[in-house]
Design a protein that fits this description.
By secondary structure, the chain is of the alpha/beta class. It is built from eight helices and seven strands; from the N terminus they run H-H-E-H-E-H-E-E-H-E-H-H-E-H-E. It has a seven-stranded mixed beta sheet with strand order 3-2-1-4-5-7-6, sandwiched between helices. The longest helix is centred in the N-terminal third of the chain and has 40 residues, at 2-41. It is globular and about 50 Å long. The relative contact order is 0.14.
Length: 259
């Protein structure tokens, strides 16, 4: 038992250190990242994302939505403009500052809170929808995150996750100024690669791993292998070539069965 407790404490210490490194990384990226998201909001990508979300979300009702890893508030703004009540969370205080400024600029009354995606400070069955974009690849414990996201969903609630299988990729500096990551310096790129290599989810192939794990939580899962051609449609913005998958998972039974 003592050995197990020691291993548990070592994991907590490791995750804590990695979480701090991830937070610092996104703090440093916040200004350029926000500019990229504003460019998306003001170009054809916004309409493309809006159409995709309308297809996946329940229709005819105002939904309570949790935007996890909101970053500069892209989804919070889109969904708020669609009439939903959105709460955006992020571990980066600098990102949340950008999200609040952007939401104000676009006239959206979203709420924003600083919070770890793996340890949510919400009551169980609080949200109709949980949504995330390009976050799970950088989480120290994606299993814990998915468990928490499942917990805060109402019965029949929907989890939407848009991400890429970056585990076997190596990020590099982009010379093309139209690339969305063109202005990232080499030190930050090295940090990003170090973070990617440190998280366990990089050892799994995705979205297959996500699908199987969400099914193990009792969810009904649908997935699309690559929605990038649809939503990365702005000719003035160049993205990575890695496919962007879309997962839609429905919570099928009452949370008391697990928690």
């Amino acid at each position: 038992m003592a050995t197990n407790n020691m291993k548990y404490n070592e994991d907590i210490d490791t995750y804590g250190e990695l979480n701090r490194e991830i937070e610092a990384y996104w703090d440093s990226r916040s200004d350029d990242f926000s500019k990229t998201r504003r460019k998306e909001l003001e170009g054809p990508s916004a309409e493309a994302w809006r159409g995709l979300l309308k297809e996946k979300l329940p229709q005819g009702q105002k939904l309570r939505i949790l935007d996890i890893g909101t970053g500069a508030g892209f989804f919070a703004i889109l969904l708020g403009k669609m009439g939903h009540a959105v709460t955006g969370i992020d571990m980066s205080g600098a990102m949340l500052h950008e999200a609040k400024i952007n939401a104000l600029a676009y006239g959206v009354a979203a709420k924003f809170q600083k919070m770890n995606a793996q340890e949510l400070d919400f009551e169980s069955e609080s949200f109709d929808v949980v949504i995330s974009r390009n976050l799970t690849w950088t989480l120290p414990d994606a299993m814990a995150a998915y468990q928490e996201w499942h917990r805060v969903l109402k019965p029949q609630g929907l989890l939407l996750n848009f991400d890429s299988d970056y585990g076997q990729e190596t990020f590099s500096k982009k010379d093309n100024q139209e690339h969305v990551h063109a202005n990232i310096n080499q030190e930050l790129i090295d940090t990003c690669n170090n973070i990617k290599d440190a998280v366990r989810i990089s050892n799994h192939r995705r979205p297959d791993w996500d699908i199987q794990y969400l099914k193990s939580l009792g969810m009904e899962v649908d997935a699309e292998a690559n929605i990038a051609p649809r939503v990365h449609n702005d000719p003035d913005m160049q993205y990575d070539d890695v496919p962007l998958f879309a997962i839609a998972a429905k919570k099928l039974f009452h949370a008391d069965n697990l928690y």
